[in-house]
Amino acid sequence: MAVDRRRVERLTRELLEAIGEDPERPGLKQTPARMADLYSEFFAGVGEDAAAPLARTISVSRGPAPETLPSGAVLLRDIRFRSVCEHHLLPFAGRAHIAYLPGEQVVGLGALIRVVETLATRPQVQERLGEQIADTISEHLDTRGVLVVLDATHGCVTMRGGRQPEASTLTMAARGIYTEPVARAELVTLIGTSTGSAGAR
Q: What share of the chain is helix, strand, coil (3-state, %, to 5)?
Protein backbone atom coordinates (compact mmCIF):
# COMPACT_ATOMS: atom_id res chain seq x y z
CA MET A 1 0.00 0.00 0.00
CA ALA A 2 1.58 3.28 -1.13
CA VAL A 3 1.75 6.29 1.16
CA ASP A 4 -1.00 8.82 0.42
CA ARG A 5 1.29 11.69 -0.48
CA ARG A 6 -1.42 14.32 -0.90
CA ARG A 7 -2.85 13.52 2.50
CA VAL A 8 0.59 13.68 4.13
CA GLU A 9 1.15 17.09 2.57
CA ARG A 10 -2.22 18.36 3.77
CA LEU A 11 -1.70 17.05 7.30
CA THR A 12 1.82 18.48 7.45
CA ARG A 13 0.41 21.91 6.65
CA GLU A 14 -2.14 21.46 9.43
CA LEU A 15 0.57 20.38 11.84
CA LEU A 16 2.67 23.45 11.05
CA GLU A 17 -0.36 25.65 11.66
CA ALA A 18 -1.11 23.76 14.90
CA ILE A 19 2.31 24.64 16.34
CA GLY A 20 1.81 28.28 15.43
CA GLU A 21 3.87 28.35 12.23
CA ASP A 22 3.08 29.77 8.81
CA PRO A 23 3.35 27.00 6.18
CA GLU A 24 3.55 29.68 3.48
CA ARG A 25 6.76 31.27 4.71
CA PRO A 26 9.75 30.56 2.45
CA GLY A 27 11.52 28.15 4.77
CA LEU A 28 8.43 25.95 5.18
CA LYS A 29 6.72 26.23 1.82
CA GLN A 30 8.30 23.00 0.50
CA THR A 31 8.12 21.17 3.82
CA PRO A 32 4.82 19.35 3.13
CA ALA A 33 6.18 17.90 -0.12
CA ARG A 34 9.45 16.97 1.60
CA MET A 35 7.51 15.22 4.36
CA ALA A 36 5.60 13.24 1.74
CA ASP A 37 8.93 12.14 0.22
CA LEU A 38 10.28 11.25 3.65
CA TYR A 39 7.25 9.24 4.73
CA SER A 40 7.14 7.41 1.40
CA GLU A 41 10.69 6.26 2.08
CA PHE A 42 10.42 5.61 5.81
CA PHE A 43 7.19 3.61 5.57
CA ALA A 44 7.76 1.76 2.30
CA GLY A 45 7.46 -1.58 4.12
CA VAL A 46 3.86 -1.08 5.23
CA GLY A 47 1.79 -3.76 3.53
CA GLU A 48 4.83 -5.40 1.91
CA ASP A 49 5.53 -9.13 2.27
CA ALA A 50 8.70 -9.39 4.33
CA ALA A 51 9.06 -13.09 3.48
CA ALA A 52 9.17 -12.52 -0.29
CA PRO A 53 13.00 -12.22 -0.43
CA LEU A 54 13.28 -15.72 1.09
CA ALA A 55 11.31 -17.40 -1.69
CA ARG A 56 14.40 -18.10 -3.81
CA THR A 57 16.47 -20.69 -2.00
CA ILE A 58 19.50 -22.79 -2.89
CA SER A 59 19.83 -26.49 -2.07
CA VAL A 60 22.95 -27.07 0.00
CA SER A 61 23.34 -30.67 -1.25
CA ARG A 62 22.34 -30.19 -4.89
CA GLY A 63 23.29 -26.56 -5.37
CA PRO A 64 26.12 -25.04 -7.41
CA ALA A 65 28.77 -25.54 -4.72
CA PRO A 66 27.97 -28.65 -2.63
CA GLU A 67 31.63 -28.94 -1.66
CA THR A 68 31.23 -25.74 0.41
CA LEU A 69 28.36 -26.86 2.62
CA PRO A 70 28.13 -24.81 5.83
CA SER A 71 28.92 -26.95 8.87
CA GLY A 72 27.76 -24.31 11.31
CA ALA A 73 25.77 -21.12 11.48
CA VAL A 74 25.63 -18.47 8.78
CA LEU A 75 26.22 -15.14 10.51
CA LEU A 76 25.66 -11.78 8.84
CA ARG A 77 26.79 -8.88 11.00
CA ASP A 78 26.40 -5.12 10.93
CA ILE A 79 23.33 -4.72 8.73
CA ARG A 80 22.61 -1.03 9.02
CA PHE A 81 18.94 -0.19 9.46
CA ARG A 82 16.75 2.71 10.44
CA SER A 83 13.15 2.73 11.50
CA VAL A 84 10.57 5.00 13.13
CA CYS A 85 9.35 4.45 16.67
CA GLU A 86 5.58 4.21 16.68
CA HIS A 87 5.28 5.95 20.06
CA HIS A 88 6.65 9.38 19.08
CA LEU A 89 7.34 8.95 15.34
CA LEU A 90 11.00 9.65 16.02
CA PRO A 91 13.71 7.65 14.25
CA PHE A 92 15.80 4.88 15.70
CA ALA A 93 18.76 3.40 13.90
CA GLY A 94 21.54 0.91 14.36
CA ARG A 95 22.82 -2.46 13.28
CA ALA A 96 21.20 -5.86 12.96
CA HIS A 97 23.11 -9.11 13.33
CA ILE A 98 21.45 -12.27 11.97
CA ALA A 99 22.53 -15.88 12.35
CA TYR A 100 20.79 -19.02 11.19
CA LEU A 101 21.70 -22.69 11.21
CA PRO A 102 20.85 -23.97 7.73
CA GLY A 103 18.87 -27.07 6.97
CA GLU A 104 18.69 -28.24 3.36
CA GLN A 105 18.02 -24.77 1.94
CA VAL A 106 19.96 -21.51 2.17
CA VAL A 107 19.38 -18.04 0.72
CA GLY A 108 21.61 -15.35 -0.67
CA LEU A 109 22.80 -12.96 2.03
CA GLY A 110 21.07 -10.05 0.31
CA ALA A 111 17.71 -11.71 1.06
CA LEU A 112 18.33 -11.38 4.79
CA ILE A 113 19.11 -7.69 4.36
CA ARG A 114 15.87 -7.16 2.45
CA VAL A 115 13.89 -8.86 5.25
CA VAL A 116 15.36 -6.36 7.73
CA GLU A 117 14.71 -3.39 5.44
CA THR A 118 11.09 -4.36 4.76
CA LEU A 119 10.22 -4.86 8.41
CA ALA A 120 12.14 -1.77 9.54
CA THR A 121 10.30 0.55 7.13
CA ARG A 122 7.12 0.44 9.18
CA PRO A 123 6.13 2.13 12.43
CA GLN A 124 7.97 -0.10 14.90
CA VAL A 125 9.35 -0.78 18.33
CA GLN A 126 12.77 -2.40 18.46
CA GLU A 127 11.67 -5.42 20.47
CA ARG A 128 8.96 -6.32 17.97
CA LEU A 129 11.20 -5.67 14.98
CA GLY A 130 13.69 -8.26 16.19
CA GLU A 131 10.93 -10.80 16.86
CA GLN A 132 9.41 -10.23 13.43
CA ILE A 133 12.75 -10.72 11.69
CA ALA A 134 13.33 -13.96 13.61
CA ASP A 135 9.80 -15.22 12.88
CA THR A 136 10.03 -14.41 9.17
CA ILE A 137 13.31 -16.29 8.76
CA SER A 138 12.36 -19.28 10.92
CA GLU A 139 8.94 -19.68 9.29
CA HIS A 140 9.97 -19.24 5.65
CA LEU A 141 13.45 -20.73 5.54
CA ASP A 142 14.64 -24.26 6.30
CA THR A 143 16.52 -23.56 9.53
CA ARG A 144 17.31 -25.35 12.77
CA GLY A 145 17.85 -22.12 14.62
CA VAL A 146 17.72 -18.33 14.18
CA LEU A 147 19.27 -15.56 16.25
CA VAL A 148 18.61 -11.85 15.70
CA VAL A 149 20.42 -9.16 17.69
CA LEU A 150 19.57 -5.48 17.21
CA ASP A 151 21.68 -2.65 18.59
CA ALA A 152 20.15 0.79 18.08
CA THR A 153 19.97 4.35 19.33
CA HIS A 154 16.55 5.95 19.71
CA GLY A 155 15.54 9.53 19.05
CA CYS A 156 13.11 9.41 21.96
CA VAL A 157 16.09 8.72 24.27
CA THR A 158 18.77 10.87 22.63
CA MET A 159 16.64 13.91 21.70
CA ARG A 160 13.93 14.20 24.34
CA GLY A 161 13.34 13.46 28.01
CA GLY A 162 16.61 12.47 29.65
CA ARG A 163 18.59 13.18 26.45
CA GLN A 164 21.19 10.45 26.66
CA PRO A 165 23.09 10.74 23.34
CA GLU A 166 25.36 7.75 24.03
CA ALA A 167 22.67 5.31 25.16
CA SER A 168 21.91 2.36 22.90
CA THR A 169 19.40 -0.46 23.21
CA LEU A 170 20.28 -4.12 22.64
CA THR A 171 17.58 -6.72 21.97
CA MET A 172 17.77 -10.39 21.11
CA ALA A 173 15.28 -12.79 19.51
CA ALA A 174 16.00 -16.52 19.24
CA ARG A 175 14.26 -19.45 17.59
CA GLY A 176 14.94 -23.18 17.45
CA ILE A 177 18.24 -24.41 18.82
CA TYR A 178 19.33 -20.85 19.68
CA THR A 179 16.70 -20.51 22.39
CA GLU A 180 19.26 -22.45 24.47
CA PRO A 181 21.88 -20.09 25.95
CA VAL A 182 24.71 -22.61 25.49
CA ALA A 183 23.90 -23.04 21.79
CA ARG A 184 24.00 -19.32 21.07
CA ALA A 185 26.98 -18.44 23.29
CA GLU A 186 29.53 -18.65 20.46
CA LEU A 187 27.38 -16.50 18.17
CA VAL A 188 26.91 -13.88 20.87
CA THR A 189 30.68 -13.76 21.31
CA LEU A 190 31.24 -13.37 17.56
CA ILE A 191 28.64 -10.62 17.35
CA GLY A 192 30.26 -8.89 20.32
CA THR A 193 33.56 -8.68 18.45
CA SER A 194 31.85 -6.80 15.60
CA THR A 195 33.76 -3.74 14.46
CA GLY A 196 30.44 -1.93 14.11
CA SER A 197 29.67 -1.77 17.80
CA ALA A 198 27.34 0.85 19.24
CA GLY A 199 30.17 3.09 20.27
CA ALA A 200 31.41 3.28 16.69
CA ARG A 201 28.26 4.84 15.26
A: 40, 25, 35
* DSSP, res 68: G
Name the residue ranges covered by the structural domains of the chain: 5-42, 56-200
CA 134 to chain centroid: 11
Q: For 143-172, how does the pLDDT look when each residue is reduced to its tens digit (9 = 90+)?
A: 999 999 999 999 888 887 777 877 899 999
Enter the pTM of the model.
Answer: 0.89
> What confidence category does residue 105 fall into, taking pLDDT thresholds of 50, 70 and 90?
confident
Quick check: 157 and 166 in contact, CB under 8 A? no
Q: Which residues neighbour 91 within 8 Å (Cβ) at sequence distance 6 or greater?
A: 42, 82, 83, 84, 85, 155
Q: How do residues 68-101 score in pLDDT, each as one tens digit?
A: 666 689 999 999 999 999 999 999 999 999 999 9
Write the class of the CATH domain 56-200: alpha beta
Phi and psi torsions of 59, nearest 5°: -70, 130
Which residues are identified as catalytic? 85-88, 126, 154, 156
